[in-house]
Design a protein that fits this description.
This protein has 418 residues and is an alpha/beta fold. The chain has helices spanning 3-17, 20-23, 45-55, 89-101, 119-122, 132-145, 149-156, 166-170, 204-213, 220-226, 252-265, 281-298, 326-337, 369-375, 380-385, 389-395, and strands at 36-41, 61-67, 77-82, 110-116, 175-181, 245-250, 269-272, 306-310, 344-350, 362-366, 399-400, 411-417. It is built from 16 helices and 12 strands. The strands form 2 sheets. A 6-stranded parallel sheet has the order 3-2-1-4-5-6, with helices on both faces. A 6-stranded mixed sheet has the order 7-8-12-9-10-11, with helices on both faces. The protein has 2 domains: 3-11 and 253-417, MOFRL domain (glycerate kinase, domain 1, 3-Layer(aba) Sandwich), CATH 3.40.1480.10; 20-251, Glycerate kinase, MOFRL-like N-terminal domain (Rossmann fold), CATH 3.40.50.10180. Strand 1 (36-41), helix 3 and strand 2 form a beta-alpha-beta unit. One of its GO terms (molecular function) is glycerate kinase activity. Keywords: Kinase, Transferase. InterPro entries: GK-like_C_sf, GK_N_sf, MOFRL, MOFRL_assoc_dom, MOFRL_protein. It holds the Pfam family DUF4147.
């Protein structure tokens, strides 16, 4: 079996394990006396809505927002598409409509929230004193900062009228039942999509410390809001959240186990390093490459053939003006480290089907990647320093383009040592 086919099978196993069509049926709430309202946001929310419609025994209505091109057919739930990773006006309209949808409900009504990664960008809802342009600027600064997703979302939830539990609070006194697909290392549900229906204990002071730590050049309107008590997010102890539930229905840990089982069925031992790896993508690559070369040369700390698996979400501090994403940047850095080390091949992709802002989920690399780039006239280190990994892998036809998958449980990295 060719390495690309091997990696593609692992990716599909990971995605299948997080398929909402398989997971939602096991996490249904009891039917309410009143109405069932479905809301949602994220890159997997439309597929979650479609799956929920098929298994829900009763009337329902609602609205969810997903990324452009990530829609799914629904009969009773309206699907709105908006921009990701940078918000746009369609997302602003969607946020307003979600808040309107949950207003005026009663204690007999049930709100089912379908939340997945990507919801932070898809739900722009700037507070008084800020504009959509300010929120767009905040997102651009955060995306280029190299800050981990938990830190980014701690800032986002204090600059919003819908995140940080505020969407659930708007549904009071209705009961809110959240089904969550986690793309957050550590699986804290309050950080998925910046927690529109789940609260936590982070404060605006925490957000200000993050701004200082990462030297974030936020718009003055955003900084002024963070310094104001108006930025305070609801707390889990607030009465508005009494009786609410949230359930994690898919995560990186479960998907990594599925990938590992698939590898073993194909005769390759699988080792899972972690489902919650964070850090600068190119630095994380150095560690993975060193481990792979140790296995190749010395059969330590485990013997070959083997595949090293890891999940989580790395970050990229953007310094150049190239095209790419965290998975392709990880792979280009790793390819430089394993250049000429015959017997090592690698794969990294985002399980939602999109890595960065292009149409690929990730890419493939091996010990010949750098030589093949050189033969095409491309300087691998130059591409890496320009954050231009997409261009490099596109030049040698090693991009991985599966299209939208309908779920989002972070990244899958796999390194095969023959």
């Amino acid at each position: 079996m060719q390495d690309k086919e091997f990696f593609t099978k692992l990716f599909q196993a990971a995605v299948d394990a997080a398929d909402p069509a398989r997971t939602i049926a096991a996490h249904l709430p009891p039917r309410p006396k009143g109405r069932t309202i479905v809301i949602g946001a994220g890159k997997g929310s439309a597929q979650m809505a479609s799956a929920f419609e098929k298994v829900w025994d009763g009337p329902l209505e609602g609205i969810v927002v997903t990324r452009y091109g990530f829609g799914a057919p629904c009969k009773h739930i309206e699907i709105i598409e908006a921009s990701h990773p940078v918000p746009d006006a369609a997302g602003l309209i969607a946020s307003r409509r979600l808040l309107e949808t949950v207003s005026g409900l009663t204690a007999d009504d049930l709100v089912v929230a379908l939340i997945s990664g990507g919801g932070s960008a898809l739900l722009p809802s700037p507070p008084e004193g800020m504009t959509l342009e300010d929120e767009i600027a905040v997102n651009k600064v955060l995306l280029a900062s190299g800050a981990p997703i938990s830190a980014m979302n701690a800032v986002r939830k204090h600059l919003s009228t819908i995140k940080g539990g505020r969407l659930a609070a708007a549904a009071h006194p209705a009961r809110v039942f959240s089904l969550i697909v986690s793309d957050i290392p550590g699986d804290n549900p309050a950080f998925v999509a910046s927690g529109p229906t789940v609260t936590d204990e982070t404060t605006r002071d925490d957000a200000l410390r993050i701004v200082a730590r990462y030297n974030l050049a936020l718009p003055e309107a955003a900084l002024a809001h963070l310094r104001s008590a108006k930025a305070d997010a609801p707390k889990p102890s607030d009465a508005a959240f009494a009786g609410h539930e949230h359930h994690l229905i898919a995560s990186a840990a479960v998907s990594l186990e599925a990938a590992a089982k698939t590898a073993r069925r194909m005769g390759v031992e699988a080792v899972i390093l972690s489902d919650a790896i964070e850090g600068e993508a190119r630095e994380v690559a150095h560690v993975h490459a060193a481990l792979a070369k140790q296995v190749l040369a010395k059969d330590q700390p485990f013997t070959k053939p083997a595949v090293i698996l890891s999940g989580g979400e790395t970050t990229v501090t953007v310094r150049g003006k190239g095209k790419g994403g965290r998975n392709s940047e990880f792979l280009l850095s790793l390819a430089i480290d394993i250049d000429g080390a015959g017997g090592i091949s690698a794969f990294a992709a985002d399980t939602d089907g999109i890595d960065g802002s292009e149409d690929n989920a990730g890419a493939f690399a091996d010990s010949t990647t750098i030589a093949r780039l050189l033969a095409k006239g491309h300087d691998a280190l130059g591409h890496l320093n320009s954050n231009d990994a997409w261009t490099a892998f596109n030049a040698i036809d090693d991009l991985f383009v599966p299209g939208p998958t309908g779920t989002n449980v972070n990244d899958l990295r796999a390194i095969l040592i023959r």
